[in-house]
Amino acid sequence: MTVTVTQRQTRVAWIEAAYRELARAGERGVAITALAARLGVTKGSFYWHFKDRTELLRALLDRWAHERTDEMLRMSLGSTGDTRERLRRIQALGREVAPIDRAMRLWAQHDKDAAEAVRQADRALLAHIAACLEELDFTPEESRLRALLMLRTWAGGYLVQGPPGDLGPDPDARMLEILLAR
Predict the structure, then answer these.
(1) Average pLDDT score over the chain
(2) What confidence tens digit (pLDDT) does each residue in 151-182 have?
(3) Which of 5, 63, 91, 97 has the smallest number of Cβ neighbours within 10 A?
(4) The model's pTM
(5) Could you say which of 2.120.10, 1.10.10, 3.90.1750, 1.10.1240 is the CATH number of the domain covering 1-50?
(6) In CATH, which superfamily holds the domain spanning 54-160+167-182?
(7) 3-state class (DSSP) for residue 9
(8) Residue 8: which pLDDT band, with cuts at 50, 70 and 90?
């Protein structure tokens, strides 16, 4: 019997399915058998594209690093030269990618390759945020400190539920203004 690509799935389909599972259940939840069932194929399809689970996990790290740095920065820059708008976009994108970001940071606590991927992605994002802040006339040192504060606030936002009560019509915009205040 000849196995077709649709029966076998593609390498990209496996990575995307694993990426969704990583966001949902964390790195330990990325199981070949479960992914094969979700994709409607056998485990043999997996081994057509990957030597083992470790190779799939490395592909997930590459996928995340690309999304977190290249795609996030491209989307935040977009077609605007407005520095505050770029920072607002990064803040909004941070909320959108919170599930995968959380999974990556938890994975990084016990895996050196994941930790390095998170470090590199954070370094790129921090440099971009700091450059935006320098455009707003903060000193280089203050820009780096504020960038770190912003990243910590945005990355930790999924861990802290909003306090009860009314924070106004757009608490995220207000938070950004506070972070940019002198």
Answers:
(1) 86
(2) 888 877 767 766 656 777 777 888 889 889 98
(3) 5
(4) 0.82
(5) 1.10.10
(6) Tetracycline Repressor, domain 2 (1.10.357.10)
(7) coil
(8) low
